[in-house]
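Section 5.1 Outputs to date
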Amino acid sequence: MNKIYQVYQVSDSTGETLDRIFLAIKAQFSNFNYKTIHYSFTRTENQIDKIITKSKTEKNIIILYTIVNENLAKYMVQETKKYNIPCFEVLGNLITNFSKLLKQEASHKPSGQHVLNEDYYKRIEAVQFTMSHDDGKKISDLNNSDVVLVGASRTSKTPTSIYLANRGYKVANIPLIPNKDIPTQLIESSKKICVVGLICDVARLFDVRRNRIHSMHEDRPSDYTDKKIILNELENSKKLFKKYNWPIIDVTRKSVEETAASIIKILDILNLK
């Protein structure tokens, strides 16, 4: 039986660089079974200690990391050496290291990550699913989603959904509309799948909505940019998320990439339970 490797991707940022590099690495090895676990925004020794503690309880661990802080990177190397855990910094000679670890010859195919393999078609399927489930357009099969994003208008639901879809996640997003009940399908599906609530600072959401109206020349009701009404929308959103115990992400100061990384981290945690 082939080994299944647990690939820990540890980054001090969103982890996107690591994902891309690992995509290129794994394309070189046809007989490589693995599961990835993401640890984004790792910036303290305490966080590294928790990762090491977790890794000691599992078999066939490989740690890949991108950490800018030299002292923290040295600490990572020091701690993994103590327990003989394979740990590679992405700027190192990764193909050679993986070849030794897996006891396989690398194919050395240029742009091997762009081969039309199962992962490629998975991403295409995810994008198609996400586009057809944007803005509450389709809710009959929410159980087929990897994650459902819920939030008031202009809380980055669509761009985050599309970003995640390009990473292979099937995402549905549903807007919270004032004075309108949420779909019963969402409540039922949330018992089986991950639902994440997105919120935003009132001032930030006001600016985003106002700029949207001006740039798109949209005809919106005045309450769409009324700060008191926006505050009420956000407060009701929080109450709803807490009622159903859905994780909440504040997107105010987050880029789409950072929001997506936080969602992936939530999914990884849920998948480990």
